[in-house]
Design goal:
Layout lengths: L22 E11 L5 H12 L10 H26 L8 H18 L7 E10 L3 H10 L2 E8 L6 H16 L6 E4 L7 H17 L6 E7 L3 H5 L4 H16 L6 E6 L12 H10 L4 E5 L8 H4 L1 H12 L4 E5 L6 H14 L8 H19 L1
Helix pairs in contact: 1-2, 3-12, 4-5, 6-8, 9-11, 12-13
Length: about 375
């Protein structure tokens, strides 16, 4: 018989029937964040991230030496400097943590407005760093959530993002004697509400600019090409998102170009690369450039430092004049409406009211908030 172990935080009462039950949990999951910009905090975070075989599938003593003796000696200081440029000094945390907390709180308020007899708890966790998936899953279970929706906040599926987030959750579930029922959010890369939310964010951002972009880059996080060979659908889903976004905005492929960022290591990665494209466009005489990052549900170091700061500086250094980055959907009304709607779609059968009624109640809640803020 398998020996089931559980974390200290997951201990149950002596009478199992005394446990709370009947609630629904929604767990929003993002990639992760260090606890500070210090060398050792960054090293802990990077070690957890780079030790994940879903992210780096290299094994053996050679990789162990490269990771621990070389990468984790040099990379923490470099990454710490990047995070320091965007750090939320007021809350002493990364913007991703601030935004993720806000998303969970505000989506929770929207879903509570449904007024079902079934309580809904919306929580958030990080695949790497804190709060951990294991900790938050156990908390939801203790609150009485016997049905939980796992929602990795990645519009496009990849083994290195959605796959590893769900894998970590399944590890936690394996250690539970009384497991909750589980559902998972499918990739929503071509969902009409997602495409329209991103398109509208671009339209709104264009109205704030003092210049008209000659080109717009839709920059997605890159992946090594061998992921596609192994069956990972990420690259194909990014391409479809790009096509649908162009169509929604009425742009041709000469106006909006799809690129990939954040490449590292020696493997071949999907191209064109965002950083090289930015330089090439500036050298070709493009003076006004806009970048949107549709694959990120919340702004993070990859968007705020790599794009909004570093790419902007590179563009101007090579001859460009005006550069702007469209903020991620974050906690915008479009984002909260989109995520709430996706959640409701996946909770059908668990919620006690008919989905059309739920949708109308969410819309009414949004209208009340809008009229109250105007």
């Amino acid at each position: 018989m398998t020996n089931l172990t559980r974390p200290e935080s997951a201990r149950f009462p002596s009478d199992p029937m005394a446990l709370k039950t009947g609630r629904i949990g929604v767990l929003l999951i993002n990639v992760g964040t260090p606890e500070s910009t210090s060398y050792w905090a960054m090293r802990r975070y990077l070690k957890e991230f780079l030790s994940d075989p879903r992210v780096v599938d290299t094994k053996g003593l050679a990789w162990w030496f490269i990771l621990n003796a070389i990468i984790l000696t040099r990379k923490p200081a470099e990454s710490g400097r990047a995070y320091a440029k965007i750090w939320n000094q007021e809350r002493d945390e990364s913007p991703l943590k601030t935004i993720s907390r806000g998303q969970a709180e505000q989506i929770g308020a929207r879903l509570s407005a449904i007024e079902t007899n079934t309580g809904i708890d919306v929580a958030w966790a990080m695949r790497y760093g804190q709060p951990s998936i294991a900790h938050v899953l156990n908390e939801l279970h203790q609150r009485g959530c016997d049905r939980i929706l796992l929602f990795p906040l990645y519009p496009q599926y990849s083994a290195a993002t959605t796959g590893t987030a769900l894998g970590k959750a399944y590890e936690t579930l394996q250690a539970m004697c009384w497991q909750p029922s589980i559902r998972t959010m499918p990739a929503y890369y071509d969902h009409p509400r997602y495409i329209e939310a991103v398109a509208e964010s671009v339209r709104e951002h264009l109205t704030t600019l003092s210049f008209e972009p000659k080109m717009i880059l839709a920059s997605f996080h890159g992946l090594p090409k061998d992921f596609l060979v192994k069956g990972d659908p990420y690259h194909c889903q990014c391409q479809k998102t790009g096509r649908l976004l162009r169509r929604a905005l009425g742009f041709g492929p000469d106006k909006m170009v799809l690129t990939f960022q954040s490449q590292t290591g020696r493997k071949e990665w999907h191209e064109p690369f965002t950083d090289k494209t930015v330089v090439q466009l500036a050298q070709q005489g493009v003076k006004n450039l806009l970048v949107v990052t549709p694959g990120f549900a919340a702004d993070c170091v990859e968007t705020l430092e790599e794009i909004a700061i570093r790419a902007s500086e590179s563009f101007r250094q090579h001859g460009g004049s005006n550069f702007s980055h469209v903020p991620c959907l974050n906690r915008s009304e479009a984002s909260l409406g989109l995520l709430s709607s996706l959640i409701v779609e996946q909770l059908q059968g668990w919620l006690r009211r008919a989905p059309p009624t739920i949708e109308r109640r969410i819309e009414a809640y949004q209208e009340r908030r809008h009229s109250g803020s105007s």
